[in-house]
Fold each of these.
Amino acid sequence: MDYNFNFAAVWRDFDLLMSGLGLGLILAVISIAIGCFIGLLAAFGMLSKNRAIRWVSAGYVSAIRNTPILVLILFTFFALPQLGIRFGKIESFIVTLSVYSGAYLTEVFRAGLIALPTGLREAGLSIGLTEFGTKLNLIIPVMFRNVLPSLSNNFISLFKDTSLAAAIAVPELTFYARKINVETFRVIETWMIASLMYVLACYVIAAVLRQVETRLAIPR
Amino acid sequence: MSSPVLEIVDLHKRFGALEVLKGINLTMHQGDVVSLIGSSGSGKTTLLRCVNLLEEYEDGVVAVAGEQIGYTKKNGKRVRLSEREIARQRAMTGMAFQHFNLFPHMTAMHNVMLGLIKTRRMKKDEAHSVAEKWLERVGMLARRDHYPGQLSGGQQQRVAIARAIAMNPQLMLFDEVTSALDPELVNEVLSVVRDLAKDGMTMLLVTHEMQFAHDVSSKVIFMDDGRIGEEGPPDQLFRQPKSERLAAFLKSSKFS
């Protein structure tokens, strides 16, 4: 192989890559926070006694999970404005990733809710909490702790999905990597560094989330 | 005589086509300790759970301190009360469960404090001192900062009893509180219940501990196929059973 590595051209714009990485993280954090809220509602919806609510929740989950995320991103950004629903590109991506993560988190939360002992709810009711108070003080906190490991998995996966925001020119890591690539023609160096940055970021996120899991774990 | 703490009139309960309570009548006054005994599936636990509406009932009346639990009449029709009303009524009774059902993500102290703060609307300091008092009473103060997963079954059950009783209920419901315990842990829980009985707490218990039911109760009810098979003072019921079914049940449960 006769290739001369030259990282200098990429290093020059390293701050751009870093700012892209930062934006990706912010997008993931905001989206998973909104996604958690949507997922919780839909998970309770799927376990509701009301058939219509169950049907709507299940319909949401299967519709979103069976559509590629890139298609959702393009649909939200290009098609929704035709219907009069307009977002900036960053907002548009957050909406998409939130709705997308919500569908996956619905299943995570649903499994967590099903696994809880019925006695937890009954004990809450027996001390005079309402159904809502029981959910808020007991069901959700206990379920949340139990599903933290799979929530972490989802978070890492969602963070990597932020690279798709480049498709609608959201200035995150992949967007800048592509830009630097085009401007410098240092193809291997650019994508090597971008990949390495994703790997390291995911590694750090996983380590932080493991700490959170340990801290929040129910002592046994 | 004072007005009844619990009054159950012609209570019926069905699970689908299966009628599990077929017209129960029971009146309890302040300080009464009533034990429900009988074989599995006779309706003891269901009866207990109807009192705080963990089971809905179809017919009849369950009233605690003169207030019908769960339902009211509007234009001659039976209407379910609002969630908020039912929650308030549930707090009139306390319940200890077979499997303790402590809140696993809270320490013993917070298990007791939660209802005091959320339901009784106490300030944190006040709830803390009430919780402390009851944890001490059940011998669990030293372990107030332990989580349920760090306690033995007997210890968990004692915390669960403290959690229920700290709410100052008018009536305590005990649902087979020793059934899930290792034999050597049964006594520590029974002695707590005995203690409460001595203090004049009104209690309705479902139990398989015949000797305990005999010792602690002012009245024992033998449930048989969804009905009250026999009832009376413990000595009469255990020593001179009228029906063959009760005699057979007592023999099989090795009461001596």
Note: The radius of gyration of chain B is 18 Å.
Amino acid sequence: MSTILDLMAEQPSSDLAHYNFAYLDEQTKRMIRRAILKAIAVPGYQVPFGSREMPMPYGWGTGGVQVTASILGAEDVLKVIDQGADDTTNAVSIRKFFEHVAGVKTTTSTEEATVIQTRHRIPERPLEPGQTIVFQVPIPEPLRFLEPRETETRAMHALEEYGLMHVKLYEDIARHGHIATTYAYPVKVAGRYVMDPSPTPKFDNPKMHRNAALQLYGAGREARIYAIPPYTEVVSLDFEDHPFEVNRFDRPCALCGAENVYLDEVVTDDAGGRMFVCSDTDNCESRRADGHVGEMGVPAAEAAE
Amino acid sequence: MSLSPHHDTNASTLSGGFFDPVRQAQQAFHALMNALARPGTVQPIEAVEAPAALPRLFGTIACTLLDPDTRLFLDPMLAGDPHVAEWMTFQTGTAIVGHESEAMFGMISDSREVELAAFCAGDQAYPDRSTTLCLSVSSFSGGKALRCTGPGIETSHTIAPAGLPADFAEQWAANHVLFPRGVDLFLSCEGEGVIGLPRSIQIASET
């Protein structure tokens, strides 16, 4: 079965089907760029934009892809992660897409990247000034499951009326004894807008606060772009007596021994065997290359043999 | 020099703009994006050929952000020169509007006279429907010291652009208090680049 990338690769570059740099036409990029500028000026506010059809289905990160396509330059180095991993389907196909339509250099290293597109995690390694992280967002409206009408949620944002969100968190506590929301955990940006950080595990919420990198969020199906400028206050909503807490893991990564990182559970056999490994593959690989070994890992030199 | 503006249209309006639109627009946008994301920092930006009356960095910003979907306001000095409007229309296709409050973008070549409140601050529900103003300043130093704090700034950043209105800090306070409504500024200085001042930041004059 041929994929869209195969079909595109079959076209000789001089043929009629010639793509503009980074796929989108310049008029579309200008429209998205204007939306990005407004998004940066009003942190956390969802700017409507004319989302385009992309050569991949909605739900595959079309919002993030459009934002990335609009900011990407020939000199940029792109990293794409799906959860924390560089090597899963979504990450690989989007990385290939941009290699093909923009010819940019790609990397799996967080340090080397100038633009990082993510679904949905934030790398463990602290981001640096000058880096931009682009989030693929499925549902940008944090109030949508509480109030289905766009006209109403828009008025609620306009009036800074976020009581309903606190009621939702309170109901969590009433039912479960604690705030049971573990991803897409609502945040307040720069003291004004309540924002959905996309289905990022709440473990990563503290990384959004005063991050040195520019954070851009693109929702393709819902046609919204929003942003958090560097060093912006991002507060996870909570209560005085039920403060925000991140997930804790009771063991380190089985491969690299890292503590205080987000772990994935991997089932290893059909007899209940399992291991917990770093979700951030780049972080895990660079730690192992530096000689860190977890309880189920093997030293880097041995693994290479 | 011909008396009718139509006779010398070609020479001034067809020349200039981007010669490599895809690359140049991306580079200029990158600078503008970083300028707004890191308020107060000077972001270098390439100047394009433009009519003599138009600050050349306005030309770059126009070629980067304007198209038939935008509405541009030109200050009386720029609007007074037919070459500028002709160049804008030919190079970008933008509509040119006569009133500040209708503008998505405003270009002000004499920044000392600018009145931020005259421009569109957007709607409380749609704060993105506001004017982005480009102000040309003579220098990024030598003016009144202005201390910027807020999103995009780690602690604080002090700028001192020359050629802003005397009451700029008061005008800005009136603009910032409207948040999330308000106008966003790009200060441009030939040979230097742009400084972005988004509505989200606070600016206080230092004494």
Note: The interface with chain A takes residues 21-23, 25-27, 29-30, 32-34, 36-38, 64-67, 69-70, 123-128, 130, 132, 150-154, 179-180, 184, 198-200 of chain B (CB under 8 Å).
